[in-house]
Amino acid sequence: MPTAYVLLNSDLGSDASVITDIKRVLAEESDIDFELQGVYGVYDIVLKLTAQKTENLRFVITNKIRKITKVQSTLTMMVIEEQETS
């Protein structure tokens, strides 16, 4: 199953509101499952997305997640599906 990890940086002090916005946006996507955590370190938020189709992941990341106000930057890592079961 296509999986992506998205590391996000948000404006200073806005990580809680960005997490709320991400949850709201992804609640509208019935074909995408997600896990979401605020973290300490270089990035502010870690998001794990899974879907039936890679295109759905790309669309949501590019057109919805990255356009959330107060998201400064993202780093997306797509899982190599052939290595998931090995």
Give a brief description.
By secondary structure, the protein is an alpha+beta fold. The protein contains two helices and four strands.
Structural class call reads: alpha+beta
Major sheet: 4 strands, antiparallel
- How many beta-strand elements? 4
Low-confidence stretches: none
**Helix count, per DSSP?**
2
Overall pLDDT level: 94
N- to C-terminal distance: 14 Å
Q: Please provide the ordered H/E string of secondary-structure elements.
A: EHEEHE
Rg on CA atoms, Å:
13 Å
- In percent, how helical is the residue content? 25-40%
Taken as a percent bin, the fraction of beta residues is 25-35%
**Overall geometric form:** globular
Record the strand order, biggest sheet: 2-3-1-4
Task: Characterise the protein shown here.
This protein is 29% helix and 35% strand. The protein contains two helices and four strands; from the N terminus they run βαββαβ. A four-stranded antiparallel sheet has the order 2-3-1-4, covered by helices on one side. A hairpin with a 6-residue loop joins strand 2 and strand 3.
Features:
alpha+beta
List the helices and strands and how they pair.
Elements lengths: L2 E8 L4 H13 L4 E7 L6 E7 L2 H12 L5 E8 L8
Antiparallel strand pairs: 1-3, 1-4, 2-3
